[in-house]
Automatic annotation (TrEMBL):
<keyword id="KW-1133">Transmembrane helix</keyword>
<dbReference type="Pfam" id="PF11259">
    <property type="entry name" value="DUF3060"/>
</dbReference>
<protein>
    <submittedName>
        <fullName>DUF3060 domain-containing protein</fullName>
    </submittedName>
</protein>
<keyword id="KW-0812">Transmembrane</keyword>
<feature type="compositionally biased region" description="Basic and acidic residues">
    <location>
        <begin position="1"/>
        <end position="13"/>
    </location>
</feature>
<feature type="compositionally biased region" description="Pro residues">
    <location>
        <begin position="40"/>
        <end position="56"/>
    </location>
</feature>
<feature type="region of interest" description="Disordered">
    <location>
        <begin position="116"/>
        <end position="147"/>
    </location>
</feature>
<feature type="compositionally biased region" description="Polar residues">
    <location>
        <begin position="27"/>
        <end position="37"/>
    </location>
</feature>
<dbReference type="InterPro" id="IPR021417">
    <property type="entry name" value="DUF3060"/>
</dbReference>
<keyword id="KW-0472">Membrane</keyword>
<feature type="region of interest" description="Disordered">
    <location>
        <begin position="1"/>
        <end position="59"/>
    </location>
</feature>
<feature type="transmembrane region" description="Helical">
    <location>
        <begin position="80"/>
        <end position="105"/>
    </location>
</feature>
C-alpha cells in the first residue's frame, strides 16, 4: 500500500500544521523553517471583561442599608374627637335655647289667656275673629270725683260674704252676719251687725257697731266704733276700738 493511501498517515499529515501552530502560540517550540519569509501573527484582541447583568429589582423593594428618606408631611389640625365634641355641644345649646323659647312663649300665652278682659268682635274680618283687651295692672280704677261709693245692703238677719283680692266694698249690715275673706280687701260696715267674721290675709274691716267679732288668718285688722262686742281673735290679727 502506498503511503498516500494510508488513512492514518493522511490524518497525521493533516494534524501536523495544527500542532505546529499551537506550539508557536504557546511558545514551547520553534516554528518550522520555511523557504519563504513569514511574519509574526498579531496578538489576539480581547474584548472588555464580561460583567454579569444586574439582577432585576422590584419597584417595591426595600432601600439599601444606610439610605434615609425625608419624613413625609404631617397633618396638622384639631383631632376628629374634639371636632365632634364641639358640634355636640353646639347642638345641645341650640336645642336648649329652642326649648326655653317655646316654654316662655307658652307661659306668656297662658298668662294672657287667664286674665279677664273685654272681647271685641271685628266685623271686617271675614273669619269673625275677636280681640281681647285685658285690664291694666298698673292703673287702679278710680271713681269720678263727687260720686259716692256704692253701698250694698245685706239681708236683714241673714248672711253676707265678701271675698276676693284687693276689693273695696261698703255694706249696710241691716242686723245680719258678715263674713270677710280673701287677700288685701277693704270693707266698711255701716249700721249694726250681729257678728263679723274675718279670715284670710291683710284684710281691713271697719265696723260701726257689732255684737261679736271673730278674726283668724294672718295680719287682719278690725276696728269697731261703738259697743262692747265679744272678741275672739288669733295672735296674728288685731281687733281694736277706734
Amino acid at each position: 500500500m502506498k503511503p498516500e493511501d494510508d488513512p492514518e498517515a493522511r490524518i497525521r499529515q493533516l494534524e501536523q500544521p495544527l500542532a505546529d501552530y499551537g506550539a508557536v502560540e504557546l511558545g514551547t517550540s520553534q516554528p518550522p523553517t520555511n523557504d519563504y519569509p513569514t511574519s509574526a501573527l498579531p496578538p489576539p484582541v480581547y474584548g472588555p471583561p464580561h460583567q454579569p447583568p444586574y439582577p432585576a429589582q422590584s419597584p417595591y423593594s426595600a432601600p439599601p442599608f444606610g439610605v434615609s428618606f425625608p419624613p413625609g408631611p404631617t397633618k396638622s389640625g384639631a383631632p376628629f374627637g374634639l371636632i365632634f365634641g364641639l358640634i355636640g355641644v353646639v347642638v345641645v345649646v341650640i336645642v336648649a335655647g329652642i326649648g326655653a323659647l317655646v316654654w316662655t312663649l307658652s307661659s306668656a300665652t297662658e298668662e294672657i289667656a287667664g286674665r279677664p278682659g273685654i272681647s271685641i268682635a271685628t266685623g271686617d274680618d271675614p273669619r269673625g275673629g275677636s280681640v281681647t283687651i285685658g285690664p291694666s295692672r298698673g292703673a287702679p280704677t278710680q271713681l269720678p270725683d263727687g260720686e259716692p261709693p256704692k253701698v250694698a245692703v245685706a239681708p236683714a238677719g241673714g248672711h253676707y260674704s265678701v271675698s276676693g283680692v284687693d276689693e273695696n266694698e261698703t255694706i249696710e249690715c241691716n242686723g245680719s252676719n258678715i263674713s270677710v275673706s280673701g287677700v288685701d280687701n277693704t270693707v266698711t260696715l255701716l249700721g249694726h251687725c250681729l257678728s263679723v267674721t274675718v279670715s284670710g290675709v291683710e284684710n281691713q274691716v271697719t265696723i260701726d257697731s257689732v255684737d261679736q267679732i271673730g278674726a283668724s288668718g294672718f295680719d287682719n285688722q278690725v276696728i269697731y266704733h261703738s259697743g262692747d262686742p265679744e272678741v275672739n281673735a288669733t295672735s296674728r290679727n288685731t281687733v281694736t276700738r277706734g
